Amino acid sequence: MWNSPAAFFAMGGYGLYVWSSFGVCALVFIFEPMQIRKRHKLIVMRLKREIRAEKFDKEELN
């Protein structure tokens, strides 16, 4: 139970730790999906490149 907004944000003297922890979690929740999407695109591009290379190699053999 907090008597004021300042007491709520101070969190009994642990406010800096509590709010910085929330901030770090928020950043992870934002950036992780972005990184996964980027990695997925790179993997798809690499696989497409490999497929094109295999098709090219097969055409050269014929």
Give the SSE string: HH
Main pleated-sheet profile: none
- Helix coverage percent: over 70%
Discrete helix count: 2
Query: Over all CA atoms, what is the radius of gyration?
Result: 25 Å
Question: Structural class, from helix and strand content?
Answer: mainly alpha
For the record, the count of structural domains works out to: 1
Mean pLDDT: 92
Beta content: under 5%
Q: Low-confidence runs (pLDDT<50, min 5 residues)?
A: none
Total strands? 0
Gross geometry: rod-shaped
Q: What distance separates the N and C termini?
A: 79 Å
Description:
The protein is rod-shaped, with a radius of gyration of 25 Å. It has one domain (5-61). 85% of the residues lie in helices and 0% in strands. It has 62 residues and is mostly helical. The termini are far apart. The mean pLDDT is 92.
Which helices and strands, and how do they pair?
Blueprint: H1 5-10, H2 15-61
In short:
Helix content is 85%, strand content 0%. It is an all-alpha fold. It has one domain (5-61).
Keywords, separated by commas or semicolons:
62 residues; mainly alpha; 85% helix
